[in-house]
């Protein structure tokens, strides 16, 4: 999740994965987009995307040659009030908030008040966290900003603030929700997005300055940049201008739930205000009033440093709350965001002095943001060269060393790590003398060598993937971008296929209990089974199957703030994941204990197969820590 708003999408993924079916590619087929030559053509193309993807409105700002070329809106900010989006319309911008956390800490470092390479336990010993590698790989402040501390993303109950005041102390949040703050691997080796880690970085602003983090950011960045209404809390200035938040088709208002991890996701800003942030970054930390932060600090924001991939020469990736992207054939920098009813993006290219802001008031379609980004990049980069890093042609024999299957080893959310086990991973093969990559089931695409162990795709401007030895000497790969390959280690290709085959077989056997139940239940009702004994051998495996099927149904019914609270659906998830293994074991024991001459052989075999399948699936769920799920628990 880039931010809290993606929780619902992850829940749907869980529901799909619980079906234990080997998924194919979920990416939509890329469609050709127009190539606008004027602002009016661009606005029309954007309107077509919004209509197609059923997004009510968008706030847009375009910056060319360092100046605002156009700022305005397309569509509706509030459908009920018939209010149009404008350059001044405020949006919740989600994880774009993180940019200001990094800027604040960089400014404090320039002033000598903090050292980003200091150990977290030295700067803020009151923060509860666990790191069994602390002696050799301590958690440093820079790790919080680059998402390399190894921390998990937020717990479900940590997403929404349903019972405390808006400005509930951040330290109390970290003390209440401690599970994410445990390093899962040596810090400073792998990138894994963590909202709690960034919120801790926001808390450090308060610890160093003695003021609330939002006040420091407001006084030192938002207002000096000319962002007059932008703020983290709701205020009299920004609330009347705030766009309504929507989801679904037709659009349905989703409200404005409060968030615990405010530094990471809770900024409100307009496209015109964020255009000033883009100009500030293009001008290397300078405003009309003077230099707020040094150019070297802006460059450091854009440069990943602490992962093994960066240490082995990969230039692109996630820096200090600022990451690179290669969409549209050019390298841009910036950040995306998403929160209930809003998705957002700002990108910029220092070498060509242009950038843009795209803010949407609906989470109905991630494709909409993607297409608007591509349209904008295509328009702003007209007339600029799009060079590609020179290709090296190593001998095919040298490429063989990289071949194999690489299993993901840096899950963003540990609860959903099993999704990678089911169908994640990257296959690297040498085909006709060329190195290729693909997913577990996808078509291979060529990788072009651009340096020692570094490769890029055919349409990518420079290296986006690198091979290297991990801390144990095993081959690993990593790629740039949040949607790339955070960190994968070479593993056996046969394991995921065996896992998928076993899970698919288990699901098939379990589902056969449903039509079988219709038959014997009908016979029971019409009195044709008066002398049949040991009905429990049939009933218990059926109940186990039904208990598991309840879980994805409940997940799909969860909406917004229901995710982390105790309610009918989260209680259903708990009961389903609790009783499924219990009933699985009971059913297996019952079918083994019943005398062979007291039950039909076919019924016995079927119940034994179903119960065995339930027990095997219970074992998988146990290994994934998915039994007795209490999503409301801290």
Give a quick precis of the structure.
With 634 residues, the chain is an alpha+beta fold. The chain contains 21 helices and 22 strands. The longest helix has 26 residues, at 568-593.
Number of helices: 21
| Fourth-tier CATH superfamily name of the largest domain | DD-peptidase/beta-lactamase superfamily
What class do helices, strands and sheet pairing give? alpha+beta
Inertia-based shape = globular
Number of domains: 3
Mean pLDDT: 91
> Fraction of residues in helices?
25-40%
Rg over CA atoms: 26 Å
Broad CATH class of the largest domain: Alpha Beta
The major sheet is characterized as: 9 strands, antiparallel
Fraction of residues in β-strands:
15-25%
Q: Using the coordinates shown, work out and report the CATH topology of the largest domain.
A: Beta-lactamase
Please identify, by name, the CATH architecture of the largest domain: 3-Layer(aba) Sandwich
Residue ranges: pLDDT <50 for 5 or more in a row? 1-30
How far is it from the N-terminal to the C-terminal residue, by CA?
19 Å
Spatial strand sequence of the major β-sheet:
17-16-15-14-22-21-20-19-18
């Amino acid at each position: 999740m880039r931010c809290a708003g993606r929780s619902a999408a992850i829940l749907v993924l869980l529901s799909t994965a619980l079906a234990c079916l080997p998924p194919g590619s979920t990416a939509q087929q890329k469609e050709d987009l127009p190539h606008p030559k004027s602002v009016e053509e661009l606005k029309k193309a954007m309107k077509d995307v919004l209509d197609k993807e059923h997004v009510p409105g968008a706030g847009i700002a375009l910056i060319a040659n360092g100046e605002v070329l156009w700022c305005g809106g397309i569509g509706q900010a509030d459908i009920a009030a018939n209010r149009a989006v404008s350059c001044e319309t405020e949006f919740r911008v989600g994880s774009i908030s993180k940019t200001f956390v990094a800027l604040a800490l960089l400014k404090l470092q320039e002033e000598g008040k903090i050292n980003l390479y200091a150990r977290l336990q030295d700067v803020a010993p009151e923060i509860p966290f666990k790191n069994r590698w602390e002696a050799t790989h301590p958690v440093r402040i820079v790790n919080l900003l680059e998402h390399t501390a190894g921390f998990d993303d937020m717990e479900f109950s940590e997403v929404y603030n349903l019972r405390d005041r808006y400005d509930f102390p951040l330290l109390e949040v970290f003390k209440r929700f401690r599970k994410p703050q445990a390093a899962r691997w040596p810090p400073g080796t792998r990138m894994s997005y963590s909202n709690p880690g960034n919120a801790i970085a926001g808390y450090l602003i308060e610890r160093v300055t003695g003021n609330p983090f939002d006040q420091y950011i407001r006084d030192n960045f938002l207002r000096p940049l000319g962002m007059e209404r932008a703020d983290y809390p709701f205020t009299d200035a920004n609330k009347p201008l705030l766009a309504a938040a929507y989801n679904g088709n037709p659009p349905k208002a989703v409200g404005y739930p409060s968030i615990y991890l405010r530094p990471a996701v809770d900024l409100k800003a307009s496209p015109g205000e964020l255009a000033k942030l883009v100009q500030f970054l293009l001008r290397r930390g300078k405003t009309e009033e003077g230099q707020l932060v040094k150019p070297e600090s802006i460059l450091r924001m854009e440069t990943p440093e602490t992962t093994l991939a960066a240490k082995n020469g990969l230039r692109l990736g996630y820096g200090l709350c600022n990451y690179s992207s290669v969409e549209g054939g050019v390298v841009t920098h910036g950040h995306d965001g998403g929160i209930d009813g809003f998705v957002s993006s700002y990108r910029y290219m220092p070498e060509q002095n242009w950038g843009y802001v795209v803010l949407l008031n609906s989470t109905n379609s991630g494709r909409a943001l993607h297409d608007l980004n591509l349209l904008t990049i295509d328009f702003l980069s007209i007339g600029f060269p799009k060079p590609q890093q020179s290709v090296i042609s190593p001998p095919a024999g040298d490429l063989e060393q990289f071949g194999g299957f690489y299993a993901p080893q840096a899950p963003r959310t540990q609860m959903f790590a099993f999704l990678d086990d089911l169908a994640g991973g990257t296959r690297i093969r040498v085909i006709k003398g060329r190195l290729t990559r693909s997913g577990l089931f996808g078509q291979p695409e060529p990788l072009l060598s651009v340096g020692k162990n570094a490769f890029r795709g055919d349409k990518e401007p420079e290296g986006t993937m690198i091979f290297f030895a991990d801390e144990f000497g095993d081959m690993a790969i990593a790629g740039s971008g949040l949607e790339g390959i955070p960190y994968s280690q070479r593993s056996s290709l046969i394991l995921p296929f065996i896992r998928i085959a076993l899970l698919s077989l288990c699901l098939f056997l379990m589902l056969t209990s449903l039509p079988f139940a219709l038959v014997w239940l009908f016979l029971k009702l019409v009195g044709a089974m008066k002398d049949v004994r040991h009905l429990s051998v049939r009933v218990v495996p059926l109940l186990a199957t039904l208990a598991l099927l309840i879980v994805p149904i409940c997940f799909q019914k969860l909406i917004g703030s229901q995710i982390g609270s105790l309610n009918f659906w989260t209680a259903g998830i708990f009961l389903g994941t609790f009783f499924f293994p219990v009933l699985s074991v009971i059913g297996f024991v019952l079918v083994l204990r019943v005398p062979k001459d007291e039950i039909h052989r076919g019924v016995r075999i079927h119940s034994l197969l179903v119960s065995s399948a339930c027990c095997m699936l219970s074992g998988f769920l146990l290994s994934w820590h998915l039994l007795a799920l209490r999503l409301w628990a801290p």
